[in-house]
Write a structure and sequence with these properties.
Blueprint lengths: L1 E10 L4 H11 L2 E11 L4 E10 L6 H14 L3 E5 L4 E7 L4 H11 L5 E8 L5 H6 L3 E4 L7 H14 L4 E4 L8 H6 L4 E5 L11 H8 L3 E8 L9 E8 L6 H24 L3 E4 L2 E4 L2
Parallel strand pairs: 5-6, 5-8, 6-7, 8-9
Antiparallel strand pairs: 1-3, 1-4, 2-3, 9-10, 10-11, 12-13
The structure holds ligand LMY7XDAE.
Length: 282
């Protein structure tokens, strides 16, 4: 028996779910989990189905070949995955709290994917990565070396066969070209509750504004800084007694939680793009 996941979105019309479930029955498959969302405002249906096939001989390529005619008939965008776990390249700078949380969940088997290596523009987090038995690759990234650094990153994505790049407080802005080459495959944790307080120092902005909650936002990376489709957000209560240092300390918890959830949901194929937003079948 093999396990697969199908996600799709298409223009709303009658017969979509019937077509999908009939296809699965005809191929000896059994549905384990099914979720769908009708976005009436945009006239699109979003669907995720996890299913098993009794036969070990059926693979993703076979299912794609067989499902393509159905997808064309309904103008579907779809994805099909087998049990192979998503391979992750984690990028960091100096702050280690998000990496630490990802490493713990990976070792505990609750991250939903495999961390393949850690890449950084600083040496600070090499001990944490190597203590977890992972390769640590130092790629300096300054204004003069940005292009070379990004070329090296693309090589590392190939070298480690990474499906996903996670910016776990990686403090360099990715170029438009790199964002295009890795579109939909880069998740960033922004250390504020977007759309508030963009940029590199949101906690000082939060302090100056006198907020009562601080938060974090995990989103797909696009060329527009901090504007990508949001996957998950977390907020925590604060008050007037929290200075920027204290706000930063509380924020670390929100960042680690929001990022780890977003990474797990992406790895479990629970996140579908919907315009500049997402549908998340948690
Ligand atoms: N194309 C994108 N790249 C990145 C994004 C993004 O949304 N789109 N998010 C950032 C992370 N980030 C906020 O979440 C962020 C990181 C860095 C900066 C910034 O201004 N960096 C300065 C250098 C700062 C330093 O060296 O410490 C810069 O790049 O000139 C703003 C926001 C990750 N990349």
């Amino acid at each position: 028996m093999r396990n697969f996941t199908l996600t799709l979105d298409c223009p709303e019309r009658a017969g979509i779910v019937h077509a999908v479930t009939s296809f699965l029955v005809e191929h000896g498959c059994d549905i384990a989990e099914h979720q769908q969302f009708d976005d009436d405002a945009r006239g699109r249906l979003f669907l995720r189905t996890a299913f098993s096939c009794a036969s070990d001989d059926i693979g993703v390529d076979d299912l794609v070949r067989e499902f393509d005619p159905v997808a064309r008939e309904f103008s579907m965008r779809y994805g099909l995955w087998d049990e192979r776990r998503t391979r992750i390249l984690v990028m960091v700078s100096k702050a280690g709290h998000c990496l630490n949380d990802l490493l713990f969940r990976w070792r505990a088997g609750s991250l939903g994917g495999e961390i393949a290596a850690v890449v950084s523009n600083h040496e600070d987090l090499r001990p944490m990565a190597e203590a977890a038995g992972l390769d640590f690759v130092h790629v300096p990234n300054t204004a003069d070396t940005k292009h070379a650094a990004e070329q090296r990153l693309l090589e590392l994505v190939e070298e480690y066969q990474a499906d996903l790049v996670v910016l776990a407080r990686y403090m360099q802005v990715l170029s438009n070209d790199l964002c295009a080459k890795l579109a939909g495959r880069v998740i960033n944790i922004h250390h504020s509750f977007l759309p508030g307080f963009k940029g590199a120092k949101p906690y000082h902005q939060a302090y100056d504004r006198g907020v009562k909650y601080v938060g974090a936002t995990a989103h797909y990376v696009t060329p527009d800084l901090d504007e990508g489709p949001i996957i998950e957000q977390e907020v925590l209560r604060v008050d007037h007694s929290f200075d920027p240092r204290a706000l930063t300390a509380v924020g670390r918890d929100a960042e680690a939680l929001a990022l780890s959830r977003a990474v797990r949901w992406h790895c479990e194929h629970r996140v579908l793009l919907n315009g500049n937003g997402t549908v998340v079948f948690r």
